[in-house]
Amino acid sequence: GHKDRHWSYRDMPEWASMFPNCGGHMQSPINIDTAAASFSSKLEPLLLSGYDVPPNETLPLKNNGHTLLLGLPNKMTLSGGGFPQPYQAVQLHLHWGTGHTRPGSEHTVDGHRYAGEIHVVHYSSHFDSFQEAASEPGGLAVLAAFLQVGLEINEPYQHILKHLSDIKEEGEETVVAGFDVTKLLPDNFDRYFRYNGSLTTPPCYQTVNWTVFNQTVRLSQDQISVLEDTLQGEDDEPIQSNFRLPQSLYGRSVLSSFH
Ligand SMILES: NS(=O)(=O)c1c(F)c(F)c(SCCc2ccc(C(=O)O)cc2)c(F)c1NC1CCCCCCC1
Ligand SMILES: [Zn+2]
Fold this sequence. Notes:
This protein is mainly beta. The protein is built from four helices and 16 strands.
C-alpha cells in the first residue's frame, strides 16, 4: 500500500497509484519504431571519459532485489551526443528475461524484444546530486544497450557475472576490481536513438534523456542464463523478467543520430 512504497514488477499496474510520476505522459521504456524515427544532425558521437576505472580501485556490486547494481565513480563523464551539458555516472544495472525462452530487454525495436538490456545512469553536472538532478527535465541521462545471445563468452561481462553467486540474496553486496566500463557497451558510439522519457521503475522520474545504442552487445547463452538464474529478490523468488512494459509515446518523437 501507500505507506510501504515497496513495489515489484508483479504490481506494475499499481505503480501509478503509489508513485504519481509513473502515470505521466513521458514514461519509459517505449517501442522504437525505426521507420518513424527522425534523423537529427545535432546528435554527435557520444564522448565517455573516465570510464576506464583503474584495477586498484573497487566498485560496489549489489543485489538490490530488482537487479544487480554496479556503483560507479562520478568522475566518469558523458558528453557530446547533442547533450546540453555533461553528465556524471551514478550506477549501471541490467534487465533480463526468464529461462532463455522469454527475453527481457525494456525497450523494443519494431516490436522486437532482445534478451536483455544494460542501463548506465548519469545525472547532469549542473547539479550536486542525483536527487537534485532527478527533479529537472534532462537532469538524468541513461545510456541503454541491448544484450543479445552470441557464440562467444563476453569477457568484460564475465568480470561482473562471475560475482553473482556471491550476492544471490537480496541486499547482499560485494566489490569488483576497477575495469574499463566502456567494454560493457557497443563499440559504435555514433549510432543511437534519442528520446525524452523516465526511469522505468518507481519513482519513474520523467527527467531522463534516453540514448539507446543501435549496435547490440553479445553475451554467450551461458552468461545470459547466469543472469536469469542466479539472483534472488523478495522471499527468495528469482529475479527474472525485471522489465517494464512499453509505454505510450503521447506524441513524443524519437530521434536518430544516423540515416
Ligand atoms: N531503469 S532505471 O534506471 O529506471 C532503474 C531500474 F529499472 C531499476 F529496477 C533499478 S533498481 C530499483 C530502484 C533501487 C532500489 C534499491 C536501490 C538500493 O538498494 O541501492 C537502488 C535503486 C534502478 F536502480 C534503476 N535506476 C535507478 C532508478 C531509481 C532510484 C534512483 C537511483 C538511480 C537510478
Ligand atoms: Zn534500468
